[in-house]
Amino acid sequence: MDTLKLKILELMKEDARRSADLIATMLGTAEDEVARAISEMEADKVIVKYATVVNWSKVDDEKVTALIEVQITPERGHGFDAIAERIYLYPEVKSVYLMSGAYDLLVEIEGSSLKQVASFVSNKLSPIDRVLSTKTNFILKKYKQDGIIFEDQADDHRMLVSP
């Protein structure tokens, strides 16, 4: 991938609302060149979605998010991919990652309650062939996501004392 496209991606990752005109100005290039590069990246599925980062704790919404560590036995000829696909097709599943370390997959799910998440793990995830074990971790509070800090920094109101 060329340097211009990488620079465009970095700027769009910071703020996807930036126009091709603004990006062109920031990079010192022509607007039509930026627009063409963005269109190519959309067609090539490099840019797959424009999304909004929401601080759900500010909204009266009681979603429960869990990160589930899953140990599996890879499937002959398909490795981890076939099992990962089976898992990511569930609508509750927001993300699935192949990991190195103590477990194989990290599955992020969202539910309306702890009970719903527990039901997903016990009725849908654990019974899958080749799933050896699961460990569920509930997210209690998000401090930072996608480079965005959610909590305002508390100002230090202590009095300055000098010798």
CATH fold name of the largest domain? Alpha-Beta Plaits
**Major sheet: order of its strands?**
2-3-1-4
State the helical fraction.
25-40%
- How large a portion of the residues is in β-strands, by DSSP E? 15-25%
Please summarize what this structure is.
By secondary structure, the chain is an alpha+beta fold. It is built from 5 helices and 6 strands, in the order αααβαββαβββ. The chain folds into 2 domains: about 5-45, Orthogonal Bundle (Arc Repressor Mutant, subunit A), CATH 1.10.10; about 60-140, 2-Layer Sandwich (Alpha-Beta Plaits).
Q: Can you characterise this structure?
A:
This protein is of the alpha+beta class. The chain has two domains: 3-43, Arc Repressor Mutant, subunit A; 60-141, Alpha-Beta Plaits. It is 33% helix and 21% strand. The protein has helices spanning 3-14, 20-27, 31-43, 81-88, 114-125, and strands at 64-72, 93-98, 105-111, 131-138, 144-145, 148-149. The strands form two sheets. A four-stranded antiparallel sheet has the order 2-3-1-4. A two-stranded antiparallel ribbon has the order 5-6. The protein starts with a helix and ends in a 14-residue tail after the last strand. The model has no long low-confidence stretch (mean pLDDT 90).
